[in-house]
Every structure is written in structure tokens, then in C-alpha cells.
Design brief:
21% helix; globular; binds guanosine-5'-monophosphate; binds zinc ion
Amino acid sequence: MSDCIFCKIVAGDIPADIVHEDDKVLVFKDINPRTQVHLLTIPKQHIESLAEIDDSHDQLMAHMIKLQQTLAKKQGLESGFRTIINTGKGGGQEVFHLHIHLLGGNNLPAFTKE
Ligand code: 5GP
Ligand code: ZN
């Protein structure tokens, strides 16, 4: 996807503060952090959103989810962390390349009714 900002980060065309890389994923700091720790985990392959995944992505998705606890530990989030995947315009997604937000470092409030 030539116009995808996260694909450009994977390709090295746009700089990012990378904290983890392996054959499947890239993890980097959110450019506009909402909490003390705010990381984004993305697949290296372009997948638009959680609504686009199928059985062929099982290994990748398990890897992305399991990685969160490792990242959280490395970031010192012993007391807990929050993960968010915004999906589609109605879900508040702004960058249409699948990503998991890892948030922590503040005592995050419980969800309240909007
Ligand atoms: P979404 O709203 O799609 O779930 O989240 C997109 C996130 O990507 C936002 O939190 C935004 O701050 C972050 N973001 C957008 N563009 C860039 C960028 O060029 N670099 C980095 N590191 N983060 C970005
Ligand atoms: Zn992309």
C-alpha cells in the first residue's frame, strides 16, 4: 500500500522510534502518546483492520497478542496495561493498517458509559 503511513514506517521511508522488530511485526512509539507508555504493534504486511483478518492470520494474531505482555514488562508496566484495537471509522480508527495500542504508566480509569 504505497499511501499507507505504517507501510512507509515498515519500509524505513518514515522514521519511527522502534522498540521491537521481528520477522512478522514492528513495534514503535505512538507519535502522539496519550499515556506515559503508548506503543503501537503492527504487522509488517498490510492488513487494513481487524475486520479483514481470516484463518491465514491466526499465527500472526496470536504473536501480536502474546507480544503485549512482553512489551508491557519491558516498559515497566507491572501493575497492568490496556490494549486497544480501533476498527473502522465507527470504531475510531484513523490509520487503516491494523495496529494494537499498548497503553500504561498512568493509573488508567475503568471504562465508563459515554
Ligand atoms: P487509530 O486511531 O487508527 O487507532 O490510531 C492511530 C495512531 O497512530 C494514533 O494514536 C496516532 O497518534 C498514531 N500515528 C499516526 N501517524 C503516526 C506516525 O507517523 N508515526 C507514529 N509513530 N504514530 C503515528
Ligand atoms: Zn499499510
